[in-house]
Each structure stands twice: as C-alpha cells, then as structure tokens.
Amino acid sequence: MQTNKRQLTMMEMMTRKRDGVGAAPRAAPGPPQPDALDEKLAAANRVFFGHGSFRPGQQRAIRGALHGRDVVVVLPTGGGKSLCYQLPALLTPGVTIVVSPLLSLIEDQVSALLGAACGGIPAAHLTSGTKEAASRSVLHELHKAGEGRGELGLKLLYVTPERLAASPTFGECLAKLHRRRLLARFVVDEAHCVSEWGHDFRPDYRKLGNLRRSYPGVPFMALTATATPACEADLRRSLKISPDALAHRTSSDRPNLHFAVEDYSEGGANDVREAVVDFVRRRPGQCGIVYCMTQADAEACADLLSERCDDVKAAHYHAGLSPANRRVTQAAWQAGRVHVVCATIAYGMGIDKADVRYVVHASLAKSLEGYYQEAGRAGRDGAPSRCVLYYRRQDVAKIRKLVTGFGRMKRRGPRLQRDLDKLDDMVKYCETPRSCCRRQRLVGHFGADPGPGNGDRPCCDLCDRRAGAAAPPRAAPAAPPRRGPPPAPGRARGPPPVRAPKPADVVDLLGGFSSDEDVAYPARKRRAR
Ligand SMILES: [Zn+2]
Prior knowledge:
Elements: H1 2-17, H2 24-27, H3 34-49, H4 58-66, E1 71-74, H5 81-91, E2 95-99, H6 103-114, E3 123-126, H7 132-146, E4 156-159, H8 161-166, H9 168-179, E5 183-188, H10 203-206, H11 211-214, E6 220-224, H12 229-238, E7 246-249, E8 257-263, H13 269-281, E9 287-291, H14 295-308, E10 314-317, H15 323-334, E11 340-343, E12 356-361, H16 368-375, E13 385-391, H17 393-404, H18 414-430, H19 438-445, H20 461-466, H21 503-509, H22 517-520
Parallel strand pairs: 1-6, 1-7, 2-4, 2-5, 3-4, 5-6, 8-13, 9-11, 9-12, 10-11, 12-13
The structure holds zinc ion.
C-alpha cells in the first residue's frame, strides 16, 4: 500500500493545483453546469493522462458516468475506451471495479495507470496472477475503508470474473464498501464476452448481472470494440443495463484500414507462404502482425520471413511459449527491434502498439468479429494500414472441425450452431461478390453503414479493382507502388502438408472459448503494485 499512498498524495497535490478538479463531484451534490463540467473534464484529462483533447464519444460517455447513469460504449479498437471509465473513476468518491477477461490485459492496464502522466494513478489488480502479499494488502485496504477505519486510496481495481465469483472475502469487502457508498461503479470491459453472440463468450461473465442484486444502486459501464446489434442486446439483458442508460456507439468503420482478401483456394499452402513472404518483403522496416492457424505455422512463418526477407526481423508468439519468452518477444516488438510477429490468434488481445502498418491473416479467422478485432490492431495511430487475409477454401473445413470438436469433446446445441453461423459469415466475407465493397460488408455486419465507398481514401481490393487500379496502389506510405503478380494458382507445389492439430493448437485457435484463462493465458509475473 506504500505505493498507493505515495501516488494518492501526488494525485491529491495535482488535484489541488488544478482548482479542485478531483473533488468536484464530492463538493457539489448535483451535476455541475455543462460548460463547467466540460472544462473540468478537459483539465482532468490533461493533468491525469497528459491528453490534449478527447476522442469522439469519450466525453459523452464520461459525462453519463459522472451523472450516475449506466453507460454502454461501443468504440472501435484504438478509440480510447479505457479513458471512458478511468477518468470518472478519478472524479468519483470510492473505488471502481473493472472486470476484464485477460490477465495480460489487466496487467498492462494497471502498469499504464501506475505510470500515468500525473505521476501515477492508484490502481491494482486481484487475479490469479496477483502476488499473495499484494492481494492481502488490497483486501486489507478495502476492508478497513469499508469499516470506516481507514482512507480508501485505491481508485481502480481490476478483477477477472472468476475472481469476483470465487472469493467470499472479496465479496464481504465489496458489501462493506457498498454500505459506506464507496463502491463507485462496476465496469465490464470487453463486454461482448457476456453474450453468447459475442466471439469470446466466457460463462463467468454471464453471472455479472447478479452484482445488481448484491449491490443495488451501483451504476454499470459496459465497453466493447466489436458487438453486433444482437450481441449488444444480449449483453444489455444479461447485465440488466437500465433502459435509460447512456449508449455511445461509434461506427465500427476504420477509414485508414485497407481490406483485401487474396483467394488461394486453387493453390497450395506453400503459395500462401510465398505470398506472405512477398508481402512482408515489400515493406521493410514496417511493423506488422501475421496471424497463423497453428503454433507450428507461426514458428515456420517467422523462420521463413527471417530467412527470406532482408532487413526484416520476425519472431513467433503463441500460447506454447513460456511467459518469459513471450515477454521478451513482446518487448522487442514494442521497441521496434522485431518488425513482424507471427502469432496464433490467442495473441495480444490487449496489445497497444499504435504503428502496426499491416495485419496479415495467413489463414481464415473463425468469425468476422474475431477477424475485425485482430485486423483492427493495424493503424491505431490513424495512418494508412493494410489488412490482408489469405483465403483457402480448404481452411473452412479445418476450422469447422475445430469448432465442432473431436471425439468426446464434440460440441452440440445452439452455441455450436451460432459458432458455425459465425464461420459462415466469415466465409461470406471472403467470398464477397466482385460487384460489392468488402468494407461495406464488414462494417455493415456490426450494424453501421459506412456509405458506398471510402471517399478518396483506400477502401478495399474490390473497389480498387473496379476503379481500374492495378492491385493495391494506395498502400501504406513506405510500400513500393507496384507488386508482382501472386503466384499462379496452377503453380501449386504439391498438396499442402497436412498436420493434425495438437491440443495446444486447439487452445490457440479457439482462444476465446477457453473459460480457464490460466491455461490459455498464463500470468505474466510482474510487480503487481
Ligand atoms: Zn470497398
């Protein structure tokens, strides 16, 4: 708690310096006048996070939260979702409980908060990865504050849904805090995990609606990057979101991303590998991600890229690596010492790297929701970036098999059907007729209409083709203007090597289905607080 006390003092000093920004809601019982509140929010955003302005939708969501309303936020990846609850947490008495699905995501968020521009924001996590001493210290602070015997310094506490459900001591602390009105808000991050219509469904998320009964009157905020209208309706029902909740849904369109699908159904797996090498080679020095179907594919792809592309440093990353190895690779990538990471799709749900110039899928994704989330890791800095998927019809059967399960693990019932329907949507995206726009199909899937094209900006391979453009001329700035033709389908070098998926591959491919986060995503040991 030493750290917290120090950080709180710094925060308080900061707050006092900015004429009572942090104390505003405490001092005034009703919400302040609009302009006064806007000014205070802008000042708080600058002081605490070092941001000069808000991104679209943030201010509205924050205002809704400060008025004590439930809030539902659908903002695309890179849209700044976290600020929507972090800023209100700092401006509201008590502690905000943030439920998040992944240990790595939680640890990244907490370390970002502890290192925030203002000198640190008091945050902590309680997960299976939290050290025993740190857990005890957090619970002790909550307990004392709940009994009125101590100050509550902690502003944001991140937990996994499993921890929330499984720890009676934690529950008691929350009940005490609730009685003293120190439970500011429940935040459900990656809220699509609540819904069976979401692509990362987690059964423990389903129980979060029970918090309503246990802690009446505590407002909720649900945030996600990708939710179809059906998914959003389901998560609202499940979390018992109030009908007068403030909802902010930004169009899921990402105009700086160029989408393309290269059909290699007639070719072999080797042709896809060659095409990936070609794609990466033409972008030396650029930062990218190549998603592969299996761990073995990811390793082979990284080796091939390192061997065949001068000036490109590639590394693999998947759930089969030790936490230490993954940390090293991720740090090297983050620092730009590794250009390309070849990963299975379980990789990096919480990755925050702004200058990813391309995301290549060397095989099919299992849903359009998953695909868009992965592809959306490109171009978070707003600069033109490319999302290419190499499609082989043969992959559909492989993924269908993995989704359906094997032998005794065979799945049945409506959830399986939904997952198969999602795979169908993914296939339809890949097989979008030439007369249509791929971006429109993609964005339309998430309930928004991006309009007939992307203005004068790059749109998709199909629009390029119709515009008579030679294959992608308007690439990211550093890309050369022309590319060689893809290998002719007839030049397949024999049938693709068939390899039965290992259990670990299944975990990677179905990353989102795993309810045991510690199996799929082992904790990265780090200083918890
Ligand atoms: Zn288009």
